[in-house]
């Protein structure tokens, strides 16, 4: 089987709740993502447990600090054995280069991807924090900065994937949340696409939370997504 293209977001408050979900899926079918909530609750022990079970792990802690601190945090993430991690592009070039240095150069090193502008910000918010220009061109500029600083890719909305793919070439990882299988509840997401649409727009990996974690049968939900995307390159 090819490597999975779905990353399930483990948005749970405790290791116990997350473990109950993890028991219902297997490593060939999905990666698992820990964000701030679960990592704060369950910590590195839980990451190690997922790695022992054979899962690929995305540590989504969105590091943003001075270069030395981020480099050292990324080194710890590499020691933990995570496969993918996030840093904020707004930390600037020196911080991004430090993040990339921190994960080392072994073939198994974590891939480092940048968060451009949070999708929760609108034009008024960006102006208020001193980011001028339209959001799409700022996003592209930050993604270009990430690439030139040696990062492996960025997180982006599926609706941005096509432009980023065409501007940044085929070897830059695009990881997209905001995925909803046709007919699923959109919830609080705004710029959404189906799994097949996101991949066709150039996404490499799809972050999917509630459509899988809240499904009555999570493995069946994953299987149905896998079927939907089986024919997409
Ligand atoms: O449940 P849902 O599929 O909406 O979950 C999406 C996941 O992706 C959540 O863990 C959320 O924090 C994350 N995410 C996002 N938008 C971003 C970055 C991350 O929805 N821009």
Could you provide a short overview of the structure?
The protein is an alpha/beta fold and 233 residues long. It contains ten helices and eight strands.
CATH architecture field: Alpha-Beta Barrel
Number of helices: 10
Low-confidence stretches: none
Order of helices and strands: EHEHEHEHEHHEHEHEHH
Bound heterogens, unique: cytidine-5'-monophosphate
What does the main sheet amount to?
8 strands, parallel, barrel
* Sheet/helix structural class: alpha/beta
- Average pLDDT works out at 95
Helix content: 40-55%
Molecular structure report:
The chain is an alpha/beta fold and 233 residues long. It has one domain (6-229): Aldolase class I (TIM Barrel). The chain is 44% helix and 15% strand. It is built from ten helices and eight strands. It has helices at 15-22, 36-52, 67-80, 93-102, 123-128, 135-148, 158-168, 195-200, 210-213, 218-229, and strands spanning 6-9, 31-34, 57-63, 84-88, 111-115, 153-155, 173-176, 205-208. It has an eight-stranded parallel beta barrel with strand order 1-2-3-4-5-6-7-8, surrounded by five helices. Helix 1 (15-22) links the parallel strand 1 and strand 2. Helix 3 runs parallel beside helix 4 (93-102) and helix 6 (135-148) crosses helix 7 (158-168). The protein is globular, with a radius of gyration of 17 Å. Cytidine-5'-monophosphate (C5P) binds next to strand 8.
